[in-house]
């Protein structure tokens, strides 16, 4: 299916690995030019190089999404290198260890601020940096990475779920503001997905136990999320906005 993304300019935050890289790769395979906005410059550079082999323009820009000045500088660099941002994927996230709220409280509370800053404030900062140019152009696609934990709650992920819940509310609210300008804003809510970060936290025994809660009897693959993201980035999804869409193998149906 040709999603008619050839030549579109997309920014993927946290695009150096995991879900972000999977989304960036699928966008590139559809012909979009990609900016990898990533705090880890090494992984960003590797990702950008791999995308160039697909035949699109791609470059890496070191970005701290929690710093508005860093985000503004990133957007200016993208505009100079590729052109105005037409697609923004707010994927950068901070995934804490799977600890109960009490365990977190008694260990390192700074992690809470980091989770909220990266997951929520990061999306706000990046959206703020591109929204006016999208309004002027009368076109834009913003895809925010939330979580199924935001919809149904999840033990041992309380603060993370709260930050992602804020993303869902932000998505719905911004969508109502900017729909009149031809801008679509949606959130994707994955359940547990086998990224490198998640695999480092999961023991084989724990994974076997978790999988039993999924009707599809497997955890998510980053490409599962990327398939939906690329569709939402296309004009095939022009009548979809303000939605928080689960990709979860049936784990939760709320």
Automatic annotation (TrEMBL):
Pfam families: adh_short_C2. InterPro entries: NAD(P)-bd_dom_sf, Sc_DH/Rdtase_CS, SDR_fam. GO terms for molecular function: glucose 1-dehydrogenase [NAD(P)+] activity; quinone binding. One of its GO terms (biological process) is fatty acid biosynthetic process. Keywords: Oxidoreductase. It comes from the Bacteria. Its EC number is 1.1.1.47. SUPFAM superfamilies: NAD(P)-binding Rossmann-fold domains. It is an enzyme of class 1 (oxidoreductase). Belongs to the short-chain dehydrogenases/reductases (SDR) family. PANTHER family: 3-OXOACYL-[ACYL-CARRIER-PROTEIN] REDUCTASE (PTHR42760:SF133), SHORT-CHAIN DEHYDROGENASES/REDUCTASES FAMILY MEMBER (PTHR42760). This is Glucose 1-dehydrogenase.
């Amino acid at each position: 299916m040709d999603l008619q993304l050839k030549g579109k300019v997309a920014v993927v935050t946290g695009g150096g690995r995991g879900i972000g890289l999977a989304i960036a790769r699928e966008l590139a395979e559809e012909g979009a030019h990609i900016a990898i906005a990533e705090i880890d410059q090494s992984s960003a550079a590797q990702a950008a190089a791999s995308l160039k082999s697909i035949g699109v323009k791609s470059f890496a820009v070191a970005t701290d999404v929690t710093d508005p000045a860093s985000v503004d500088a990133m957007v200016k660099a993208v505009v100079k290198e590729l052109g105005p941002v037409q697609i923004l994927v707010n994927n950068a996230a901070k995934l804490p260890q799977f600890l109960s709220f009490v365990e977190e409280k008694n260990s390192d509370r700074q992690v809470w601020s980091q989770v909220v800053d990266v997951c929520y404030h990061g999306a706000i900062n990046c959206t703020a940096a591109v929204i006016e140019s999208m309004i002027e152009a009368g076109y834009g696609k913003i895809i925010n990475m939330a979580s199924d934990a935001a919809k149904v709650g999840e033990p041992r992920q309380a603060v993370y779920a709260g930050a992602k819940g804020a993303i869902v509310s932000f998505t719905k609210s911004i969508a109502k503001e900017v729909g009149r300008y031809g801008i679509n804003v949606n959130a994707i809510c994955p359940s547990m997905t086998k990224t490198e970060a998640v695999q480092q936290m999961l023991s084989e025994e724990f994974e076997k136990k978790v999988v039993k809660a999924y009707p599809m009897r497997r955890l998510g693959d980053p490409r599962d999320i990327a398939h939906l993201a690329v569709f939402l980035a296309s004009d095939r999804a022009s009548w979809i906005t303000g939605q928080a869409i689960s990709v979860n193998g049936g784990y939760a149906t709320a």
